[in-house]
Amino acid sequence: MFGAYTKEVNTLVQIMKTAIPLTLAIQKDLEMDEIKKKQDGSFVSIADYATQAIIMDGINRMLPGDDVYGEENMNKCNEQFLTMVKRLLPNNLDPVKACEKAIQKFGPENHRVWVIDPIDGTAGFVVNDSYAIASALLVDLHVVCSITAWPLHDPKFTGIPINGPVIFIAVENAGAWAMDMQGNTIDMTRPTEIKKGLLTNGLGRVQNVLKTTFDVDKIVSMPSMTKGFILASGECNIYARIHKALEYVWDVAPFELFVRLCGGIVTDGTGKPLEYTTDGKVKDSDKGILCTMGGEEFHYQVLSAMQDGMKRILNINCRV
After folding, report:
1. Tens-digit pLDDT profile for residues 143-158
2. Which residues bind Mg(2+) (predicted)?
């Protein structure tokens, strides 16, 4: 069913089915001392570290030849925080050992690399809002499959008739699916209808340009990459990610292949297909990332408006 990457998909689905109930249980009872602020100002919780340990342990055991590049660095976890993380895990799973083989950058020897964001949208997670458990496999810096869970999926956002956890699966040259916890799948490859709507992520003033230019009334804002799956479902048609710094591969690769396989177009702010770099970033993503549903002509109309907004409001020239 999942083409050339059936083993990889089945392995990560199995891991996700372990991680999903764990994260939901942690979210329900999370305490303030189980959350800390990182140097970049973003939040991290015990769930981030515990989930990354579960995913990396599973990949190490079941796909032993693959490398892993994860967002959280277990070596930066102080002893008190680490003790709290260990309490969440089976006695035979040492989070430090599970994550010790994580790579820090992509070298020529790193042919197959899993990129992981264990809790994407931690700001939402800590207030019982939406989050994703994200993974994607890159072969020579090219995304070939992704398996990403939306534990608090609500059908009102996607039209997918699954209330609760959904695992979104994308496989190059095979297709895109939504899977429930029982393993039932829905083919997502071509949405039957595409609705007008703007998914927000980043600087609101530029996004207001898109809202006005394309007469968009429906605005959806949530703190994780789950917005990519709303777009791919056809419930919105514009998703603009606007940051002033380069984005990390683990924030983008786990949804962008899915969008493309559902008929969407994904480019950086200059209009080029996304390119991942050896330092784990998305090239030119400091000029924005644009994802649309509606065809090539529509995409480049939206891109032109986004570029105008970036230039006028932020003084960033995205045209090359």
Report:
1. 999 999 999 999 999 9
2. 71, 117, 119-120, 251
Residue 35's pLDDT band (boundaries 50, 70, 90)? confident
Q: Please report how many Cα atoms fall inside a 13 Å half-sphere around the Cα of residue 171, on the Cβ side.
A: 17
Length of the chain equals: 320
The full set of domains in the chain, from first to last, is 3-187 (3.30.540.10), 198-314 (3.40.190.80)
CB 146 within 8 A of CB 137: yes
Q: What is the pLDDT averaged over residues 126-145?
A: 96
Q: Report the run of H or E that residue 68 belongs to, with start and end.
A: strand 67-70
Binding residues for Mg(2+): 71, 117, 119-120, 251
Give the Cα separation of 169 and 176 in Å (integer): 6
pTM: 0.95
Selection from 3, 288, 19 nearest residue 148 by Cα: 19
Query: Is the Cα dihedral 295, 266, 302, 166 positive or negative?
Result: positive
Binding site: what residues are annotated? 71, 117, 119-120, 251
| Per-residue tokens: 27 | 């979210």
Residue from 302, 293, 297 nearest 190 by CA: 293
27 SS3 class? helix
